[in-house]
Design a protein that fits this description.
48% of the residues lie in helices and 17% in strands. With 126 residues, the protein is an alpha+beta fold. The radius of gyration is 17 Å and the shape is globular.
Length: 126
């Protein structure tokens, strides 16, 4: 269960960084037998082009490579799961993917809020 929470925390971090939703897809959503957890950040076609240029040349884009590797590693460290992270253009993702997508999000207000230390916290620390 904690890995599920961490996976959603990772998804929320990805969404905050890119302004687009990350999805868990593939065998880890559809069965109990999986070797890795596929996480796909799906950007609108326009946003993808702004960040990385034309999809036909994306694999030559160093920013695309760096972000893919960095977020894959971050996901692994946050969740303890073997994360396969990919950034996809929406039209390309929709054309290729036919299975279930599980949006990785954390509700912005889970009934928890933190507004910094209060006078009571400061007094307790002293």
């Amino acid at each position: 269960m904690p890995a599920y929470f961490w996976l959603n925390e990772f998804g929320a971090l990805v969404q905050a960084a890119f302004g687009a939703t990350a999805y868990q897809v593939g065998s880890s959503v559809e069965s109990k037998q999986w070797r890795d957890v596929d996480v796909r950040l799906i950007m609108s076609d326009e946003q993808f082009a702004q960040w990385f240029g034309p999809i036909e040349r994306v694999h030559a884009n160093p920013l695309f490579h760096a972000l893919t590797l960095a977020f894959a590693e971050l996901g692994k460290r946050m969740t303890g799961l073997p994360i396969d992270f990919q950034i996809q253009q929406q039209s390309d993702a929709n054309a290729k993917h036919k299975g279930v997508r599980n949006a990785l999000i954390v509700a912005p207000n889970r009934g928890l809020s933190y507004s910094g230390p209060t006078d009571e916290h400061i007094a307790d620390a002293n």
